[in-house]
């Protein structure tokens, strides 16, 4: 794959604006500052897609989810979505625009999960929340207007990591059966000690730095070693995982591990669609007000998932 391009004009303008505003890398922030910074990303999220029915519910009286149904009365495929934010930040409200767009573009019911965050709840707590939310959504699919036999796990960044880990947990723990997983620029293992070209070339110049990635993982693991259960890139038992769509961005330090994971899945016999987005950066899907690639990705995912789930 040719990664010899340059960041596009919109990306350059956005990065210049971040610099002018004094935006710091996450590893130079406190946890609360990081959460405020991620929440502020909604300012460049673009317009909200109208969805026919949006409901806030509780899983087991403790775990908030937001459910998007674009066509009430029609049983649609069920997508359980886990937001990004480095395991430390983000939430249902920050991911709202992406989930709205995905629900309408793909014609699916999206259940967006407000899993607990680190460092207050380090691994495995967030993943336990994700597993519980999937099982609840399947058990209540009829009430949600969803088809549990067409279950997709999806997420971006740290949320994609949780989706991949949850897929392995459900495969090994009696289901439910996941028919597809959608992983948008996942962070699949701590970067410390690894030297892939994307980690080296994109270490410090773009919206996500390798030092920030280590900072996120340090909070998530809380001193425990990285294991395949937390870091899917370390897993060797990938056979039997669901067909996978994996999205990578050219100027993202996580790009190469996404490609490596796609290759490992294929080697294990898992069908994979790798969708590479040139010229852009980590987190671009939440930046539709500034980067055209965000809306383009939503449209592509909509067409792709409709075909996959038909």
Brief summary:
With 310 residues, the protein is α/β, with parallel strands linked by helices.
Range of helix content: 25-40%
Strand order of the largest sheet: 1-2-4-3-5-6-7-8
Oligomer: single chain
Query: Mean pLDDT, as a whole number?
Result: 96
Number of strands: 8
Total domains: 1
CATH superfamily: Alpha/Beta hydrolase fold, catalytic domain
Rg over CA atoms, rounded to whole Å, is 18 Å
* CATH architecture grouping: 3-Layer(aba) Sandwich
Tell me about the largest β-sheet.
8 strands, mixed
3D architecture notes:
- The structure is a single chain.
- This protein has 310 residues and is α/β, with parallel strands linked by helices.
- It has one domain (9-309): Rossmann fold.
- The protein has ten helices and eight strands.
- Strands 1-2-4-3-5-6-7-8 form an eight-stranded mixed β-sheet, with helices on both faces.
- Helix 3 packs across helix 10 (292-309).
- The chain is globular.
- The two termini are 30 Å apart.
- The mean pLDDT is 96.
Draw up the topology in text.
Elements: H1 9-20, H2 31-39, E1 53-59, E2 63-69, E3 76-82, H3 96-106, E4 109-113, H4 125-139, H5 141-144, E5 146-156, H6 158-172, E6 180-184, H7 197-201, H8 210-221, E7 244-251, H9 255-267, E8 272-281, H10 292-309
Parallel strand pairs: 3-4, 3-5, 5-6, 6-7, 7-8
Antiparallel strand pairs: 1-2, 2-4
Helix pairs in contact: 3-10, 4-6
Features:
about 300 residues, alpha/beta, Rossmann fold, eight-stranded mixed sheet, 10 helices, about 35% helix
């Amino acid at each position: 794959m040719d990664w010899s391009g340059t960041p596009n004009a919109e990306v350059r303008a956005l990065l210049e604006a971040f610099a002018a505003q004094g935006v710091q890398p996450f590893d130079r922030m406190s946890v609360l500052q990081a959460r405020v910074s991620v929440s502020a990303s909604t300012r460049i999220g673009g317009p909200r897609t109208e969805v026919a029915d949006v409901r806030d519910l509780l899983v087991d009286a403790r775990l908030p989810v937001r459910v998007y149904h674009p066509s009430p009365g029609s049983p649609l495929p069920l997508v359980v979505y886990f937001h990004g934010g480095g395991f430390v930040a983000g939430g249902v409200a920050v991911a709202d625009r992406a989930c709205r767009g995905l629900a309408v573009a793909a014609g699916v019911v999206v259940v967006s999960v407000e899993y607990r965050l680190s460092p207050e709840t380090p691994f495995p707590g967030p993943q336990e929340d994700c597993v519980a939310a999937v099982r609840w959504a399947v058990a209540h699919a009829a009430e949600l207007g969803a088809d549990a036999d067409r279950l997709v796990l999806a997420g971006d960044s740290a949320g994609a990591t949780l989706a991949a880990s949850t897929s392995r947990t459900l495969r090994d723990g009696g289901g439910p059966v996941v028919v597809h997983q959608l992983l948008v620029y996942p962070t699949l293992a701590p970067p410390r000690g690894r030297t892939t070209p994307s980690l080296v070339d994109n270490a410090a110049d773009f919206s996500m730095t390798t030092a920030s990635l280590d900072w996120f993982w340090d909070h998530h693991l809380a001193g425990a070693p990285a294991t395949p259960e937390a870091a899917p890139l370390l897993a060797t038992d990938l056979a039997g995982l669901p067909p996978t769509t994996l999205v990578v961005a050219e100027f993202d330090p996580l790009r190469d591990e996404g490609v490596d994971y796609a290759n490992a899945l294929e080697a294990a016999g898992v069908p994979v669609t790798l969708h590479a987005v040139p010229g852009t950066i980590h987190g671009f899907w939440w930046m539709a007000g500034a980067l055209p690639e965000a809306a383009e990705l939503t449209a592509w995912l909509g067409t792709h998932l409709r075909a996959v789930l038909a």
